[in-house]
Design brief:
Rossmann fold; four-stranded parallel beta sheet; signal; ABC_transptr_periplasmic_BD; ABC_Transporter_SBP; 11 strands; five-stranded mixed beta sheet; alpha/beta
Length: 357
């Protein structure tokens, strides 16, 4: 089990490092979804470009396969939109969540009896045998034949529509456009909300999506407004359970993209802001020891981890951090990733960054 968890974490590193790469996005930036949130009814056939492929929906999908991609953002978006009945099979799971109800709801979804190949996703023959009407992937690499996955062209030939989370078009796509690369680098909280809007159009639940986006955005903006005039503090996001992602066996430290945007919304600034995606992999002990850390954010990777114990160990290892002296920390899990739970993480982190304000 430990070996399997380690291998899965190594695969997860590819997605997380990708999400962290590049400069942070400005709040409100757009991604090339081709379909924007709205409150009206969907008119079918609905046709738009998705990562360079023209897709058409003649009716709301009813048999959806959600590929793994070491993500939970897509399946969580389906659940929050009340689309669980459309899920034929789900391959995404995490085991711990900032929304305590989410792990049980994900576990309750059908899996279709699917098994993963060595690249930790559903092999082509299983996808085709299941005969979904829509296959959803968090990244373009989910349709890479060299990894044993069904290509989008294969699926189309079988009458199956495919959909990639648009902000991740460039991930696993060698011929990505500059616009796709820019959207990929500049992931933000807004990127998470835009995927909800896209699903709203595809499944003709636009009013539901519009309302959900409004509620989630309001929670984030409420925190932004509360901390706007307060001095930002240096925040470090560290996942001790993902130490396999770091060449030196250190906790996986997340920076860039949506991580930075979540921290900014909470009234902080990433302790490693401005670093490249390589920081998670190459961070050494000296860099971590000399970092300015006012607030520690401990990320949980498995339900067996204890956030308070992990924080205590890091504080003992780096007692000169301001966070260690003040014992300023909080615990998150999936809320800092690309996905619909960013508001949960923003609220948690803001309470640690600006307690009592």
């Amino acid at each position: 089990m430990r070996s399997t968890r380690t291998r899965r974490a190594s695969a997860l590193a590819l997605v997380l490092l990708a999400a962290a790469c590049g400069a942070p996005a400005a709040t409100g930036g757009r991604t090339p979804t081709g379909v924007q949130p709205a409150a009206g009814r969907t008119v079918y056939p609905l046709t738009f470009d998705n990562c360079g492929m023209r897709v058409t929906f003649r009716r709301p999908p009813q048999r959806v396969l959600i590929l793994n991609g070491t993500s939970v953002g897509e399946v969580e978006s389906f659940l929050m939109l009340g689309l669980d009945k459309t899920v034929l099979a789900n391959a995404q799971s995490y085991g711990v969540s900032d929304d305590p109800s989410m792990t049980g709801r994900i576990k309750a979804l059908p899996t279709g009896g699917l098994t993963m190949n060595k690249n930790f996703d559903v092999p082509a023959e299983q996808v085709l045998r299941l005969k979904p009407d829509l296959v959803v992937s968090t990244w373009s690499g989910g349709f890479d034949a060299t990894r044993g996955f069904a290509t989008r062209e294969q699926l189309a030939a079988a009458g199956i529509t495919s959909l990639v989370n648009p902000v991740n078009c460039a991930m696993g796509k060698p011929a990505a456009s500059e616009q796709e690369k820019r959207a990929y680098r500049n992931q933000s909280i807004n990127s998470s909300l835009e995927f909800i809007g896209l699903l709203g159009r595809v499944f003709d639940v636009q009013r539901r999506a519009f309302d959900l986006i409004g509620r989630l955005r309001a929670r984030v903006e409420s925190v932004r407004a509360r901390v706007a005039s307060l001095p930002p503090k240096k925040v470090l996001i560290a996942y001790p359970g993902m130490a396999m992602m770091n060449a030196n066996g250190l906790p996986a430290v997340m920076t860039g993209g949506v991580y930075d945007d979540v921290i900014r919304a909470a009234g902080g600034v990433n302790a490693f802001a401005g670093q490249t995606a390589d920081m998670t992999r190459t961070l050494n002990r000296e860099q971590l020891a000399t970092a300015q850390v006012d607030v520690l954010v401990v990320g949980l990777f498995t339900p067996a981890e204890n956030g308070e114990e992990a924080a205590a160990k890091l504080f003992a290892a780096y007692p000169h951090w301001a966070a260690a002296k003040s014992r300023a920390f909080t615990v998150v899990s999936d809320g800092v990733y690309l996905g619909p739970l960013n508001a949960w993480a923003v609220e948690k982190i803001s309470k640690a960054v600006h307690p009592g304000d």
